[in-house]
Task: structure prediction
Amino acid sequence: MADAAVKEKTAAATPEAEQNLTDGFHLIIDALKLNGLTTIYGVPGIPITDFGRMAQAEGIRVLSFRHEQNAGYAASIAGFLTKKPGVCLTVSAPGFLNGLTALAHATTNCFPMILISGSSEREVVDLQQGDYEEMDQLAIAKPLCKAAFRVLHAADIGIGLARAIRAAVSGRPGGVYLDLPAKLFGQVMDAEAGQKSLVKVIDAAPAQIPAPAAVKRALDVLKSAKRPLIILGKGAAYAQADDAIRSLVEKSGVPFLPMSMAKGLLPDTHPQCAGAARSTVLKDSDVVMLIGARLNWLLSHGKGKAWGEAPKKFIQIDIEPKEMDSNVEIAAPVVGDIGSCVSALLQGMGDWTTPPADWTAAVKSKREDNVAKMAPRLMNNNVPMDYHGALGVLRTVMKERPDAILVNEGANTLDLARGIIDMYQPRKRLDVGTWGIMGIGMGYAIAAAIETGKPVLAVEGDSAFGFSGMEVETICRYKLPVCIVIFNNDGIYRGTDINNVSADPAPTVFVKGSRYDKMIEAFGGVGVNATSPDDLKRAVNAAMDSGKPTLINAVLDPGAGSESGRIGNLNPQSKLRKK
Ligand SMILES: Cc1ncc(C[n+]2csc(CCOP(=O)(O)OP(=O)(O)O)c2C)c(N)n1
Ligand SMILES: [Mg+2]
Result:
């Protein structure tokens, strides 16, 4: 700050001198713009307040949040949607730490993101002399991201940002930390030398072509299958190789199972979609081709009960060689970027024989049975609403607006919405991701609206919403076309738990009958209390048509949910617990 003040005075005294100078503030802005990074999600404060103002003045879109974690989640999903690193900007120590959760989340989910944090003076931090917001941020960030860099000299800003961009988007994408000490912003240098020091990153995520032998091996294994299955992960959605993936799936004739954020890559209503026959295809398949999907907990690590007794062979397509054999043996690893791998497979297929008809017919009939069983439940008009009645309405809303973006978090609210709401287009479903994290909701909704210009429907558990709820002000401030529907069942999983021992409520319950709709009214948004599926339908359609920031409090039966949604089995049990 002091440096900036001194510089301003000097510049006023000698205007012609200033023309030949630039400084850290401007070089960072120029470097971002040069690389097409024109949106920043963040929270202002020392030492980056002026930087945000200047960036805005220079045409960068600076979106100011109420908490860095939400700004960070916004940046992470911007990275997923655009294949460019989403940028989050924070102040030092506490702001940095608030943003760090999102950086770790981006890394875990393989989203490209750069967390840029201002930091305190190196000399003071390193001697631990108690600076304002003192913290060795670089050291703390390192284990939680793909790469971490610090820039100490204005002349290195160009290189520093170039390294951050490459690290974020090349190979398997992830989070990168860029540490910018306060002094850097005010550092002055010759303007021409400054311009020359900037780097425009060429081919930041170069294609990684798979080895022909690996492609042939994969096709041989797939050809040998009697009951093949393709699993599409969010890596496949990220790749933006939509046409090639669709062609591969359709030409192969193999049933496909989309992971949550891969839904819509091919429509959930596609004749080969096995989404509604998930347990059957996992159990009974004999060859499984994973495209940008990892065999982590979300796929029961590729083994155990969910995968049945039948021996299985896995083909895995992934950009990260270390992913292979992470949980089970991979018979045919194909390492490369998804687009190049899928194209190579397509080319190698030649005259292809589709899988045995008894397998595809069995999958189809299982799917149709399950869909038919579900249908009447989705049409119920119960008051208070249950999940199926409410989700039946939202399913139709999304069907009628296939290019809207669905953001989804919660436990029951997540698991049931994922199964019930069909998706029709790629990258339209954004949810809790690899960690099953609560708190992504409003950050994702904001970034989705900003990055795509499309209307956003955020379907939120009442607990999930609470993690980022204050950002409804941000949504109203920027007048974003976001409709938030809160599935209000008075608590986490359910609102019915009772504490028999003291006056305190049970740990999973909230204030009964809360009116979340009133929150958005405080900021000029539209609030609606919906008690029936019909109410909900009217309110959501009005919101999606008007594009006005809207929050609908959907009153659900407090007893409707189940513990931890679909993953209750992951809860450890006490043998001593008194029933
Ligand atoms: C950051 C974070 N904290 C806590 C949790 C644990 N957790 C899982 S789901 C959930 C909330 C579920 O309640 P709600 O959002 O109301 O959905 P419901 O099941 O009631 O529909 C919580 C707190 C988590 N997943 N992530
Ligand atoms: Mg709830």
